[in-house]
Amino acid sequence: MGAARLVARELGIPVREILGRGKFRYVVEARAALIALLRDQRLSLPRIGEIIGRDHSSVHNALARLPEYMARNPALARLINERGGC
Questions:
Q1: Residue 23: how many CB atoms within 10 A of its CB?
Q2: C-alpha dihedral over 3, 5, 63, 54, to 10 degrees?
Q3: Roughly what angle, to the nearest 10 degrees, separates helices 25-40 and 2-11?
Q4: H or E element that contains 79
Q5: SS3 label, residue 73
Q6: For residue 86, what pLDDT is reported?
Q7: Which structural domains are found in the chain, ordered by start?
Q8: Average pLDDT over every residue of 36-58
Q9: Helix (H), strand (E) at residue 50
Q10: What is the CA angle 27-21-54, rounded to 5?
Q11: pTM over 0.85
């Protein structure tokens, strides 16, 4: 998955951690970045959920909290702004 590798490389987090069940802030923020990039590819929330192993409501929640994550994490904001995610 190209988007996951991109997020992993840019934020310095292994893909397996981004796609895993971890709830550390840096993992949650990276996962939200991945969700935003996938959404920018016009994928539906249920499809994104399938890709990352989450429910569509978790995907929706991540997108809703993305501005908060971007305000807190400049690297995440730069990634989203440069790559055109949400």
A1: 8
A2: 100
A3: 140
A4: helix 74-83
A5: coil
A6: 61
A7: 2-83 (1.10.1750.10)
A8: 96
A9: helix 45-52
A10: 100
A11: yes
Q: Which helix (H) or strand (E) holds 62?
A: helix 56-72
- Encoded amino acid at 86, one letter: C
**Who contacts 32 (Cβ-Cβ below 8 Å, separation ≥6)?**
62, 63, 65, 66, 69, 76
Overall size of the chain counted in residues: 86
Q: CB-based contacts of 77: which residues, under 8 Å, 6+ apart?
A: 70, 71
Joined tokens for residue 26: 């840096």
Task: Please provide the DSSP assignment of 4-47 as one string.
Answer: HHHHHHHHT--HHHHSSS---HHHHHHHHHHHHHHHHTT--HHH
For residue 75, is pLDDT > 70?
Answer: yes
Average pLDDT over residues 28-32: 98
